[in-house]
Amino acid sequence: MRDIKNWAWFLLFGSLWGLSEVAGGGILYAVEVPSASIVLAAWALFILAAARGLVNKPGSSTVIGAVATLFKLVNASPFICHLLGIFMLGLAFDIAATLLGRSERRFSFRNMLTGIVSAYGGYALFALSITYVVRYDIWVQGGWPKVAHHMFISGSIAALVAAVVVPVGYYLGAGSLSLQTKRPRWLYAGTMAGVALLWILGRIAG
Predict the structure, then answer these.
(1) In angstroms, rounded to a whole number, what is the distance separating the alpha carbons of residues 121 and 6?
(2) Which helix (H) or strand (E) segment is 202 a member of?
(3) Residue 77: left if φ>0, alpha if ψ -120 to 50, beta else—which one?
(4) What average pLDDT does this structure show over 170-188?
(5) Within a 10 A sphere around the Cβ of 105, how many other Cβ atoms?
(6) Of 19, 67, 111, 118, which is most buried, counting CB atoms within 10 Å of its CB?
């Protein structure tokens, strides 16, 4: 976690996730796509898995989630539901990946299980915290039935998708490891340029 190049990757993946929330989320919600949050969660889990395949360090996914949350906060209307959901998904993935796939960089059953646990965990952490800790009005009014629907119905759909996209993300991320040994200085410069471009696009999209 002390390697500055790793932090550049965290900024890049977090910004990419954040841009998908600002631009992609804006489009999906505007046209009222059914289960838009599940589509966004699936993309987020793919990004988290790719990042973990590239830099498999405990805590890294939480950092990426924090960057994505900040990106969303700065570049779009600050809806606490969205911000909390983003962060909790990153935290859940971090816990699952640390416990289940700390040394995994291949397409494996453990990667699939990491995706499933992350989806259920992220949905549960969000629903419980937004209802019983933050006490957001809509969720408090919906009570346990709304919480249960989010965790077990929406969470199950997200878990099924995650079982596919997370192993693919791990595989692609691990396959990019060789890039770090080829012209590392140019790669670092390109990564930071990519981060800057994503934030510019975020300001435009927001």
Answers:
(1) 25
(2) helix 184-205
(3) beta
(4) 73
(5) 17
(6) 118
